[in-house]
Amino acid sequence: MILAIETSCDDTCAAVVTDGGEIRSNVxxxxxxxxxxxxxxxPEIASRRHLELTDVVVADALERAGATFGDAGRVAVTRGPxxxxxxxxxxxxxxxxxxxxxxxxxxxxxxxxHVVASTLGADPVEPPYLxxxxxxxxxxxxxxxxxxxxxxxxxxxxxxxGEAFDKGARILGLPYPxxxxxxxxxxxxxxxxxxxxxxxxxxxxxxxxxxxxxxxYAVRDLGGAEAERRRADLAASYQRAIVDALAARAxxxxxxxxLERLAIGGGGPPSP
Length: 272
Description:
Blueprint: E1 2-6, E2 12-17, E3 23-29, H1 32-36, H2 43-65, E4 74-80, H3 84-101, E5 105-109, H4 110-116, E6 129-134, E7 139-146, E8 149-155, H5 161-171, H6 178-186, H7 209-222, H8 224-229, H9 231-257, E9 262-265
Parallel strand pairs: 1-4, 4-5, 6-9
Antiparallel strand pairs: 1-2, 2-3, 6-7, 7-8
Helix pairs in contact: 2-3, 5-6, 5-7, 5-9, 6-9, 7-9
């Protein structure tokens, strides 16, 4: 079995996975409430919290899997991209476990993990497929013909989708994390109330900075009281514009590449 550790941002995570792709356990300790007061992830605070949680989360993952350190055949750990301090905590823990048990250490690219996550579990996605990755710091589409590698076909030229959500939430006066708050508010709004732009910098690339600026101007032009009254409509229209951009690029590249399967992955907030 593989013992895996992930500490690239503010979630302390550990999992036990078999070589055949069966997920025996997957434990996530979130720091969301800890960083809420700052409006984003504070790297130093995240690192210190990882120091407190990593041993506990690893032990929990092993217990839920009905396994011990002696059952592990290798140790996998996120090596990047991510917050340097946070990554160092996970890497140090993984190195210590691997050295003590004389196990192979497998460094894993965070983004590669997002791309191939759908190949695990009871109903895995089989290559070839297109992966749409949307997270706090990264947004891109990639072709996967072999889980061992992937080809990036398009990516954001400025803000990632998650950044667009969080920055939009700040403009609307919503708390962190912005994505869930916009989604909650949008349920009571009209997604067609405002015609926010869907930037098209290329067949497979994304751009969200212009959308964010459009929201800022819309709030300014409406004025404080009217913007507050129509906040649900603003949130719904803004969210629809982001989702439309993601869906449109994915469909365009699927057709261009002649692919029939789409995997969606991502996660993790940006720093403030």
